[in-house]
Amino acid sequence: MGPKGYGLLKSLSTPTKPSTLTFPDICKRLHDYYNPKLPVLLERFRFYNQIQCPSEKIAEYLAELRRLSSTCNFGGFLNEALRDNFVCGLFDTAIQKKTPFRGRFIDIR
């Protein structure tokens, strides 16, 4: 490890000395530094602002919503969040208007 890398590790380890850390501890600190978790609010912002592109198939749009939802910590609310955002973000407003309001339950599992 070069001087810059060691300096970074030292700052990530403070007050502990890097020489006292185990290899897995070093890896975790560096991994967490280079791959920070985004706040849930930002993840949900991205999820709720996802809309279907004109050329995007419905299955592709739903797959993208599922991918985005994986970091939102919706818990038991996941299916409802997916359903709501799926309907609200549909490109075709004719489908959007007919889908949820005819007494049908939309199951997107």
UniProtKB/TrEMBL annotation:
Output the superkingdom of the source species: Eukaryota
Q: What is the name attached to this protein's record?
A: Retrotransposon gag domain-containing protein
Q: Which organism is it from?
A: Holothuria leucospilota (Black long sea cucumber)
